[in-house]
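Dear Dr. K.,

Following up on our conversation at the group meeting, I've run the structure prediction for Guanylate kinase 1 from Sesamum alatum. I'm pasting the input sequence below exactly as I used it, so you can double-check it against your construct before we proceed with anything downstream. Let me know if the numbering doesn't match what you have in your notebook.
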Amino acid sequence: MKLLQCEVRISYTNFNLFYHYVSLTEPLIGGSVVSMGEAPVFVVDNLNGNFPNGLHLKSKGCETAIDIGNKTYVIGTSTESASTIGIQIFNKATSEWVIPVVLGTKPKPSKGHSAIVLDEDRILVIKGNTISDDSFWFLEVNTAFVREQKIRMATEVVAWSKGVIGEAAKPIVISGPSGVGKGTLISKLMEEFPSMFGFSVSHTTRAPRTNEQNGIHYHFTERSVMEKDIADGKFLEYAAVHGNLYGTSIEAVDVVADKGKRCILDIDVQGARSVRASSLEAIFIFICPPSFEELEKRLRARGTESEEQIQKRLRNAMAELEQRNSPGLFDHILINDDLDACYEKLKKLLGLADDVKSTKESVLDPVHVPLEHTVSKTDHKILINCGVREPEKPAKNMFVLDLASMKGGAPGRTRGLRFYAIDPSSNGIGAEVLS
Ligand SMILES: Nc1ncnc2c1ncn2[C@@H]1O[C@H](COP(=O)(O)OP(=O)(O)OP(=O)(O)O)[C@@H](O)[C@H]1O
Ligand SMILES: Nc1nc2c(ncn2[C@@H]2O[C@H](COP(=O)(O)O)[C@@H](O)[C@H]2O)c(=O)[nH]1
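The predicted structure tokens came back this morning:
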């Protein structure tokens, strides 16, 4: 077993790091583990001459510095009033500081955090003094998504992805021509399983219909605003549909995952294709009308579109229907003839038997991760030591964060984490699961 255990205290004077290794059987791969004992004060004013373009970085909060390749990622809350944990990058090759574009939902600051390199692509940040469902965050610095965004934006980019403990079920993408009944089926699912599913509220530039509420059915937005947000990398996918812009923001998906619910996306085929190409692992379902005539009948009966819009939507439906058998795009095709029959089939393929009225797929007891902790890494396991165990007390002070089944990542959550307490007196990490 490759057990790496170390502790790094940071003394930030002239950017000198003082590393104190408690025990180290193998050098860390370009990384550092930071103890939470004393919140380090990081003063980078002393880095004379490293501020091109007059850039001066001032930091006095709790920060950690992590090396990957020739870059040092400084992760931390630079001011007390900061609403999220900030990122600064020091490029050792050019001796320059860079403030990267930071994508994804950013973690709110806690009183302190530890950080450890997982591989060349990501850093695990553990927020101290938090409950475990807000403790684990991944800072992606070179994943496929981040590399893509770096090219697209021609600048330095990093992305946050929140860690989710447990086997959160995959999001569901529902696609199909306008008027086929996607919204109707989704409403039925949300009504029957309100605590299991959450709807990804899309952005659109189309005008609201009379019964539609902003923030519930859509985020209705101006084209220029949406285009800027797209350029800023805030969208998981977007497409021009029937003459308007529609898109799923990363936040829309994250908001649902944060509630512990399974996300449902109602998007067109172009959007489904983009999500398929992204790192969001989902189930893709195409809803098909029993006939083209029936589709037209439903669109007209809904009475929400002008004749011109109906014609446009029907033309686009032809193309969408042709793509339903596109190799590798949809996992399931459902024909929505009789609504109730189709709904039953949908439930069946989602593994929802008649008697399931579940509230949550897996409820794990949240654990308090204290401010004071040290972390070490062995293979896929992160050992979190939360202090000295008191005799006579079955204190759970050693925890394992198991990343072996980790899935997903930015844009979106990193799912499939296992988190459990271990008894250090037993024979080896993870030998005895206490919770
Ligand atoms: N199986 C069905 N049989 C008859 N009518 C249906 C059926 N399913 C849905 N409808 C009706 O068809 C109309 C269109 O349905 P819905 O609005 O759910 O379609 P949609 O696919 O979400 O459309 P859009 O993509 O434009 O949002 C609605 O009036 C709905 O009540
Ligand atoms: N690519 C995306 N398509 C979306 C999104 N939200 C909705 N849609 C699709 O647009 C059409 C028209 O919807 P309507 O509400 O104007 O009738 C429909 O097929 C939806 O599936 C999105 O975020 N991205």
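Two things stood out to me. Residues 1-60, 356-363, 428-435 have pLDDT under 50 and may be disordered. The chain is about 20% helix and 30% strand.

Best regards,
J.T.
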